[in-house]
Design goal:
The structure is a single chain. The chain contains 17 helices and 21 strands. By secondary structure, it is of the alpha/beta class. The strands form seven sheets. Strands 1, 2, 3, 4, 5 and 6 form a six-stranded mixed β-sheet that branches. A four-stranded mixed β-sheet has the order 15-19-20-21, with helices on one face. It has a three-stranded antiparallel β-sheet with strand order 16-17-18. It is elongated. The N and C termini lie far apart (126 Å).
């Protein structure tokens, strides 16, 4: 060879390998170039660090191929052929392309030159050997990981909410690195509290977008420090991660490579190959909260039938209104004629409920009822039941249990908040020390920006710790029956504080509310709402009492107002929101009193 231009390519595949491997490979190739009269310009040294040889889309190798297409050099020097690729198909494809361009690939350690036809057999044998080594390495790595799992150690299972701790004797490996016998997972108290917060807020009816927004607004740090912060996708994966209920599943999937691109994707393994460990010591979310969250995820999932491998509508699909209710009775009402859902068909005023089959001419039930009226009647019946002494006693018992559970979690939450505050203050001290050591203008500005973000977080943590300390020192008692009666009197305002959660509670209490239209001999049609509370009548109020013609006056009253008005809701008017069962019990009680 005379003085011609050559390029050098070097690569190492794992972050566990030394970065000096690149320099060693380049030095070896340069010595070969000097012995054979080849010139290696600095611009034609291409490298890939910590990239597998089975990957086709490597930045350094792609840049080298692009330069080769422009014929900027005549040879490519590599320390050995495994640096080009450990996949035989990729290797032969790249060799064929470079041969077509009349560019030879020279393997210094193997002594192989791809433009020498006599060495093609050695090239293929070496490629088969390199691919076999890759497969063998994969098997040995998997075998070693399985052994570590069987000994009770973790193998790269880092998850938000946990931290990895070294255990056992620390020994120095052949590479010179000191490594322990293994690593085990421990609960990180600060991150675990964030996990519980996400689960609690989702179980209380918050959407994932709302939870992510609050976490970002509060400056809650995630597993990785990114400008994007928390996202819906991150929270979705968190809510279905069984590690938080103490179930750790390993070997659930395996990696396969796309033969055209070399990109990896995961495919499931048979359940018989799974390695499952149940450890209550690693549980972050208690069983009741986990079950509640999974049940709500299932209900929400039914509103959107799509997903991987799914097309069109599913048989168990449910309406969005029933899954993510906007109003207290959303998804609860159904038509007593055709059985279809009763939904908002008019937007005037507060809106009017009507059968969803009417717009598509699938039902003849054209009776509509104002949303506020329907809610007033139903909530009036619920409030009447809650005024019963036995119901108040049941509420007091539930409140006491809830207060005990909240008080029991205060010490754990307080410890987590103190640890988070300690970390935040240490981070702030490090930033101040960095500025004090004489940072440049750019560095000082960046530190000031970080400090401005950190100060509100520190103050928020101090406020939360103060509140928790006051709670831990205060004896928590259930409220008095009078307080509960007062809250029942404002039931609507209480329930609307969390509409989605309240709607689900009402649905469980009342079951489906079947609206049966009633057409009287005079006056406007109305609904009878048949629920678990017997029967409720949804009647509009009247302007005057007495024995006058209510039907005629009702019609005149409607005409004097707008074309589609909503009646005034009078809490103490003629609107009765009590089930007939309660009315009968009242009449019987009055009769007994009169008889005595």
């Amino acid at each position: 060879m005379d003085d011609r231009t050559a390029a050098v390519y070097a690569r190492y595949s794992s972050e566990n390998q030394s970065a000096t491997s690149i320099d060693d490979q380049v030095s070896s190739c340069r010595r070969y170039a000097e012995r054979n009269g080849l010139h290696v310009p600095a611009v034609h040294i291409y490298t890939d660090s910590a990239v597998s040889g089975a990957m086709r889309n490597r930045q350094g190798w792609s840049a080298l191929r692009s330069a080769a297409e422009r014929r900027l050099f005549e040879f490519v020097l590599v320390d050995d052929l495994s640096r080009v690729s450990r996949d035989l198909v990729f290797l032969l494809g790249d060799v064929a392309r470079f041969t077509y361009l009349d560019i030879g690939i020279v393997s210094v350690a193997d002594g192989i030159h791809t433009l020498d036809e006599e060495q093609l057999m050695g090239l293929q044998v070496r490629g088969v050997f390199n691919e076999h080594m890759l497969r063998d390495l994969r098997k040995k790595t998997h075998r070693g990981q399985l052994g570590q799992k069987q000994r009770g150690f973790s193998v790269g299972e880092a998850t938000f909410g946990y931290r990895s701790e070294p255990v056992g004797e620390v020994r120095e490996r052949k590479t010179g690195r000191a490594r322990p016998d293994g690593h085990v997972m421990r609960i990180d108290p600060v991150q675990a509290e964030v996990v519980r917060r996400v689960f609690r807020e989702y179980a209380d009816g918050s959407s994932l977008a709302a939870i992510a927004g609050r976490l970002n607004a509060d400056g809650v740090p995630g597993r990785y420090r990114t400008s994007k912060g928390w996202s819906v996708g991150t929270l979705t994966r968190m809510l279905c991660n069984r590690k938080y209920e103490g179930v750790w599943i390993w070997n659930k999937t395996r990696n396969v490579r796309d033969p055209s691109t070399g990109a990896c994707r995961q495919v499931p393994r048979p359940e018989s190959e799974w390695h499952v460990v149940e450890d209550e010591g690693l549980r972050i979310v208690d069983a009741e909260l986990w079950t509640s969250v999974q049940a709500r995820r299932k209900r929400v999932r039914r509103a959107w039938p799509g997903g991987r491998g799914r097309r069109g509508f599913s048989a168990d699909q449910r309406g969005v209104a029933g899954t993510c209710p906007r109003y207290l009775l959303s998804g609860t009402l159904e038509c007593g004629v055709c059985g279809r859902a009763v939904c908002l068909l008019s937007g005037k005023g507060s809106g009017y409920y009507g059968c969803s089959g009417v717009p598509i001419r699938a039902c003849e039930n054209r009776v509509r009822v104002p949303r506020l009226l329907a809610e007033e009647v139903v909530l009036g019946a619920v409030a009447e039941l809650l005024r019963d002494p036995e119901a108040i006693a049941a509420v007091l018992s539930a409140v006491e249990r809830r207060l005990r559970s909240l008080k029991g979690g205060v010490p754990e939450t307080l410890a987590a908040k103190r640890e988070e505050l300690r970390r935040a203050e240490r981070e702030r001290a490090n930033l101040v020390a960095f500025v004090a050591r004489g940072a440049d203008d750019v560095g000082a500005r960046a530190v000031r920006e970080e400090l401005e973000k950190l100060e509100p977080r520190v103050q928020r943590l101090r406020d939360e710790i103060g509140r928790l300390e006051r709670v831990s020192e205060t004896e928590m008692r259930a409220p008095s029956p009078g307080w509960i009666r007062e809250r029942v009197g404002h039931l609507r305002q209480v329930l609307e504080l969390r509409t989605a959660k309240s709607a689900e509670l009402l649905r469980r209490l009342l079951g489906p509310i079947r609206l049966v239209p009633v057409v009287p001999s005079s006056g406007r049609p109305y609904y009878q709402a048949r629920t678990a509370l017997d029967t409720l009548e949804l009647l509009p109020g009247s302007e005057s009492g007495g024995d006058s013609d209510a039907g005629a006056k009702s019609l005149r009253w409607w005409r004097r107002r707008e074309s589609n008005p909503g009646p005034r809701i009078r809490p103490h008017g003629t609107l009765h929101a009590y089930p007939r069962l309660l009315l009968r019990l009242r009449r019987e009680s009055a009769a007994k009193t009169a008889g005595s």
